[in-house]
DNA sequence: GTGGTCTAGACCACG
DNA sequence: GTGGTCTAGACCACC
């Protein structure tokens, strides 16, 4: 399970962590009952402070997606996959919508926007493909 | 000239104002030599404090896009259109790229992402079209 | 009588005008009983707004250096030369003191400061000489 | 590291803070990688509001002299010493030049100006010496 | 009327 | 604890 964090995004890091865990559960990379990486394990992986990770986990726990197993760690709940699949769609769609609303407000023509979108879309797909090869 | 500000975006309001003015100059809605709305005029239009607007203007001045006419207001510089057209492309592209990178990291399939993008794209275009009809 | 105004100085323009008139009286360029340039005459000479000039004159009148001759203009008072010679010394000395205090706080060595001062001193003298030749 | 701020100067306090930090880096009092005083620490030291200090730091960050260490403070960048040594010279020279230009425009003779300068120069040097003795 | 500066204090994100 | 953002409102310089 990779965590793709964008430090220069205006989106707070703890929210990005929440999103990444949500994506992991939605995609099945993190399965029900599985222990997710501990705060101390994840912090260096995402180049963040342990407190920042802890805050993300706290939020995930509050929304019922993970639960504390005392002395063991945090575990993916049974209800998580369903919650996370819906949430994933919502997060991705919202972010895309905001970006496109801004693009529309820039007075670039629909054609230019479409061109930009296509360029970036093939770029991320390209990136994914090359990653899959490794 | 409309100012499209998203108060719930993680992007700071003053940066959104910077972007909107940049878009206005890039699109020609704000012309060289023209006085842009005063701090006190714009603040209620974007539902922000005059100081927040002033900070945005300060940043635009620093980048050479507008210049202070003492006692009169802020004027669009001759160099602004060129600077702003480049900057517009950069802002829009960056925002789209971030949204699509996140989408890619969500493990949604390229097809699903494309579908979401198309839905949102037609939605903003639709919004524009309906605006134009009014 | 020349008016040497520095628009990029942090010193307000109206204070610079006050200083320049003071200097003119101290040096004898503006004599007792002489009418000084009207607000409307001076404004374009110093590239300032008439109100700014008016404010400077108001301040000079308050300090007894010039007086209104109704229907004629502003006149240099009998008491002015003495007042202005003292004031000139004070203005010049204060400005030099502030600049040198800042230089001292920069941790440049006294030798370096002395060198900077000498360079600038010969520059302004050189400037004056070339002006005198015209 | 002392911060020498002149509240009655026409130079804005935040610019004076920028200058003082620049001087500190140029002189080596603030070293690369070192955390500079926090906004909340410096504010009472210079008798200014934390926001005024923050504005100065923001400007220093913009010019690449300091960088934010999230949650820790502001750090002197590797590029800073070179930038600041050049900037220091420029700041000091500009301020001296403006003071001497004004002196020249006062019609005081070069000899009188030189005398004033020497008096003030020995005064600040004297101040420094007496400080060093303490 | 304009923008520029400063003080003041709130809240947030992050460590 | 740190800096970043925002609101709020004062005063100033200039037009």
Keywords:
homotetramer, 134 residues, 63% helix, 6% strand, elongated, DNA-binding
Q: Taking all residues together, what is the mean pLDDT of chain A?
A: 90
Distance between the termini of chain A: 14 Å
Low-confidence stretches of chain A: none
Give the ordered list of helices and strands of chain A: HHHEEHH
- Shape assignment of chain A: elongated
The profile of the biggest β sheet of chain A is: 2 strands, antiparallel
Oligomer: homotetramer
Task: Identify the most extensive interface between protein chains.
Answer: A-B, 47 and 47 residues
Q: What is the gyration radius of chain A calculated from CA atoms?
A: 17 Å
What fraction of the residues of chain A are assigned to beta strands by DSSP?
5-15%
Note the total helix count of chain A.
5
Secondary structure tally: strands of chain A? 2
SS-based structural class of chain A?
mainly alpha
Topology of this structure?
Four copies of one chain form a homotetramer.
Chain A: H1 13-27, H2 39-45, H3 50-62, E1 66-69, E2 73-76, H4 80-105, H5 110-133
Antiparallel strand pairs in A: 1-2
Helix pairs in contact in A: 1-3, 1-4, 2-3
Chain B binds a DNA duplex (15 and 15 nucleotides) through residues 12-14, 38-40, 48-52, 54-55, 57-58, 68-74.
Descriptive notes:
4 copies of one chain form a homotetramer. By secondary structure, chain A is mostly helical. Chain A has helices at residues 13-27, 39-45, 50-62, 80-105, 110-133, and strands spanning 66-69, 73-76. In chain A, a hairpin with a 3-residue loop joins β1 (66-69) and β2. In chain A, α1 (13-27) crosses α3 (50-62), α1 packs across α4 (80-105) and α2 (39-45) packs across α3. The longest helix of chain A has 26 residues, at 80-105. The radius of gyration of chain A is 17 Å and the shape is elongated. The mean pLDDT of chain A is 90. Chains in contact: A-B, C-D. Chains A and B meet through α1, α4 and α5 of A and α1, α4 and α5 of B.
């Amino acid at each position: 399970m990779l965590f793709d964090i964008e430090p220069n995004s205006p989106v707070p890091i703890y929210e990005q962590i929440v999103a990444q865990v949500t994506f992991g559960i939605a995609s099945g990379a993190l399965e029900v009952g599985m222990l997710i990486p501990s705060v101390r394990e994840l912090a260096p992986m995402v180049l963040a402070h342990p407190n920042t990770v802890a805050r993300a986990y706290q939020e995930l726990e509050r929304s019922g997606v993970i639960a504390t197993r005392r002395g063991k760690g945090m575990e993916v709940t049974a209800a998580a996959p369903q919650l996370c699949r819906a949430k994933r769609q919502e997060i991705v769609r919202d972010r895309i919508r905001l970006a496109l609303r801004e693009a529309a407000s820039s007075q670039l023509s629909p054609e230019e926007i479409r061109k930009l979108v296509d360029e970036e879309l093939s770029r991320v797909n390209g990136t994914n493909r090359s990653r899959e090869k490794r």
